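Input chain follows. Return structure tokens only.
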Amino acid sequence: MTGALPSFTYSSRSGKNFCWSIAASFILLPSRRMRILIPKKNLSPAAIQYYFADQQFVMPFDFELPEDLLRHLGIDYYRIHTGVYKTQEDNEYIMVDV
């Protein structure tokens, strides 16, 4: 993956749910879907196995992107919906299109 990408680190609480916090890059694709790039160097092998087993990422609840990220991407609103998302990976990143 080349080029400078915006990176943000944040965590969020929503009721009983907690999003783990890790640096990631976000790209708004031409299809208006969001691609999340997670640097593998920031994850232990156990975390990769737990969160991305079988080339899938499970989003257990809806999550609205924070305002600072939306502003940086030039959009007003984006929600990642509950679901199971396919992942891809290269030598540096795990990529999830949501």
